[in-house]
Amino acid sequence: MIDQFKAADTQVLGVSIDSKYSHDNWAKSLGGISYPLLQDFEPKGGMAKAYGAYLADKGITDRATVIIDKQGVVQYSVGVGPGGERDISALLAECQQVNG
Question: Which position among 14, 31, 69, 97 has the lowest Cβ density within 10 Å, counted as fewest Cβ atoms?
Answer without folding.
Answer: 31
